[in-house]
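Q: I'm writing up a methods section and want to include an example of the input and output format. Could you take the sequence below and give the corresponding predicted structure tokens, formatted cleanly so I can copy it straight into the document?
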Amino acid sequence: MSAGTFVLPESASILRYLATKADVPDHWYPREPKARARVDSALDWYHGNVRLHAAGLSWHRVIGKNLKQPVSEGQAKQHVAGMKTTFQTLEQFWLAKSPFLAGNEISIADLLHCCELDQLCLLDGAEQGPTLQELLEPFPRVQRWMLLVAQSTGPYWKTVSAFLHKVAQRGKERKVTASQSKL
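A: Here is the clean output for your methods example:
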């Protein structure tokens, strides 16, 4: 993010800054210290878990291959295992007692996590490995939460994710075409 001479990297920091600077409803980034700490905790957990494994898996299974960059199947498998652990932690800890990561209302933490996880739709066009639905199948709370985040953001979610889902659809079509040509 850049505003004049002020430059701020890192998506979690940008979201914190914008929610603090702008006049947004309190549920996005609460002023009450304990509620804010819950949101901050989820934002901090994101980088070493959701971001690490979703980005790594997407890179090694789809993005890197499409860009003809070096990829590693071993790394992809490690990120699959990491995603399963991440989904399990989301299921059993973060979403065990509430519909959203930090409580009963959506926050910037939910946006950050779901946007990152949404890129896993690209796996539907990968040559091998699980799809997003296959990864999510054992985690009903995570599935409900992702739908709830999309529903809670109204038409904005579809607008923001439209290009990503268009690319994912093209990948699925290429995968089908490739499998039919092998017959």
